[in-house]
Amino acid sequence: METLITILVGVLVTVAVYLLLSRNLIRVILGTAILSHAVHLLLMTMGGLKKGNVPILGENAESYTDALPQALILTAIVISFAVTAFLLVLAYRTYKETGTDDLDALRGVKDE
Q1: N or C end of the chain: which has fewer CB within 10 A?
Q2: CB of 38 within 8 A of CB of 12?
Q3: pLDDT digits (tens, 9 = 90+) for 3-39
Q4: Number of Cβ within a 10 Å radius of residue 91
Q5: Which residues lie below 8 Å from residue 42, measured CB to CB, with a gap of 6+?
Q6: Cβ atoms of residues 40 and 30 within 8 Å
Q7: Is the pLDDT of residue 58 over 80?
Q8: Rounded distance between C-alpha atoms, residue 93 and residue 30, angstroms
């Protein structure tokens, strides 16, 4: 199962890099969102599934499940959604001001 998830992470990173290399601003934003989700999936896969009791002090549990990696990934997901929303608002505002979402046109200088 972990091999399948690793292949999925590779496919997501490939799609994200393809979108990041695009000239369209919306595709670049979607590429960053897909890349962040690929990293979240990779980190969850690396953490693995641990079975055990809840980590309560005072109990003599031989094995317990640490909830910190899941909490950190959940926080990272919320932050990536907020950053994606902010970038989409910036892209909308840029399009309203300039009338284009082509990154080459937004550079403002011509290539030699």
Answers
A1: C
A2: yes
A3: 899 999 999 999 999 999 999 999 999 999 999 999 9
A4: 16
A5: 6, 9
A6: no
A7: no
A8: 17
